[in-house]
Specification:
89 residues; 2 strands
Length: 89
């Protein structure tokens, strides 16, 4: 857009494209890197939760198996004691 000066001369002012050049590309790369890093973090956290869940499930199963074995041993001991008492009479 031409501008006239006091002397009557015409001056043309050239304006830049609004900052969409190199700075825009650098900002886009930084945002993309942040998204990739955040995605990696959340996927790692999800895997860690799955590993923890598997460990707790395994521990609970082990406790249940131990309790079942202990109950069976107590039952067998009670039966043996009962039969021993019957044999004495």
């Amino acid at each position: 857009m031409p501008t006239k000066t006091e002397e009557g001369r015409t001056v043309y002012v050239e304006r830049s494209g609004g900052g969409a050049g190199v700075a825009g590309i650098i900002i886009a790369i930084a945002v993309l890197a942040a998204v990739v890093i955040a995605g990696f973090y959340f996927m790692s956290a999800s895997r860690n939760d799955a590993v923890r869940t598997d460990a707790v499930t395994s521990a609970a199963s082990s406790v249940a198996n131990s309790a079942e074995g202990a109950a069976r041993s107590v039952g067998e001991a009670a039966n043996s004691a009962g039969e021993a008492v019957k044999g004495e009479n």
